[in-house]
Write a structure and sequence with these properties.
By secondary structure, the chain is mainly α. Helix content is 83%, strand content 0%.
């Protein structure tokens, strides 16, 4: 219920999207494949973070456009 109210706020969605983008981009530098975490797992997590970032930013932009159109 709380998350549904937050999804209507484009600023919150931009923060989530940009946060995931920062984590995904910094993981390229700071995460190195080891025996426990192979390159496939790291690539999968990085791809998921990029996907969440793109999706959250698009939802935020769509919400901003709707708010401008309605007012």
């Amino acid at each position: 219920m709380i998350f549904r109210n937050r999804i209507k706020n484009p600023r919150t969605m931009m923060v989530v999207g940009n946060g995931c983008l920062v984590i995904a981009l910094s993981s390229i530098v700071f995460l190195h494949p080891t025996a426990k975490f192979g390159p496939e797992l790291i690539d999968g997590v990085r791809g998921m973070l990029f996907g969440i970032s793109i999706g959250a930013n698009l939802v935020a932009l769509r919400t901003i456009a709707r708010q401008r159109h309605c007012s």
